[in-house]
Amino acid sequence: MNKEDIIAEFKLFFEREFPMTGVELTATTNLLQDWFVDSLAIVNTTLFIESRFGISMARADINGDNFLNISTLADLVLRHLTS
Question: pTM for the whole thing?
Fold first, then answer.
């Protein structure tokens, strides 16, 4: 699985689970400021990552740097998949 595939999966997930009208979701859209991802959404996203990609998230993984945008989330997933 490559980064573009992971980004596409996240884009579908966010548009389905947390729809926003009037904002285009891209790989670099700030999820915490522009897409209104709150603490409950972070929990749901963590569960999605663990179930969809089969990885176990550590507490240290759940931070503003990793959850900044879809691209940073894809990088997080890739790091786990290759370690």
Answer: 0.94
